[in-house]
Amino acid sequence: MTPNRQCIFCQILAGKMPARVVYEDDAVLAFEDIRPQAPVHILIIPRHHLASLSEASKKDEAVLGRMLLVASEVARDRNIEAQGYRVVANNGSLAGQSVDHFHLHVLGGRLFHWPPG
Ligand code: DGP
Question: What is the CATH number of the domain that holds 96?
Fold first, then answer.
């Protein structure tokens, strides 16, 4: 899928917006969230523009799996694996999705409650 010019995460992927990248490969990019909600807060995005999980289809199966594995690797690298961490995907407006480029949040380094707010 072609990059979306209005999409801030596509701009980060294109190198037009700065980001503190912590991991990248041919399918995904991981970088620090600009408004961290925990001591560790990393976003993981697919390299192609996928607006939300609702837009995903069979062709996205591999990248969705890669994103979860990268979440696990990032958690290990940032030493939040042993204490536990949270992986979140907000999908759509009621869930609080504010950037329409699908992303996983990896959050750690503090206590999280359930259910989330
Ligand atoms: P969500 O609400 O689930 O769509 O999360 C979007 C996240 O993206 C939010 O935690 C803040 C983060 N974010 C928004 N704009 C930027 C940006 O320009 N750079 C970075 N690094 N993070 C951003």
Answer: 3.30.428.10
Is 48 within the bounds of a domain?
A: yes
Rounded to two decimals, the pTM is 0.97
pLDDT digits (tens, 9 = 90+) for 82-108: 999 999 999 999 999 999 999 999 999
For the chain, the domain total comes to 1
Q: How far, in Å, from the CA of 81 to the mean position of ligand 1?
A: 23
Report the residue among 13, 35, 44, 55 best suited for mutation to probe ligand 1: largest number of ligand atoms under 8 A from its CB. Answer: 35
Encode burial over 50-89: b for 16+ CB neighbours within 10 A, e otherwise. bbbbeebeeebeebbebbeebbebbbeebebeeeebbbeb
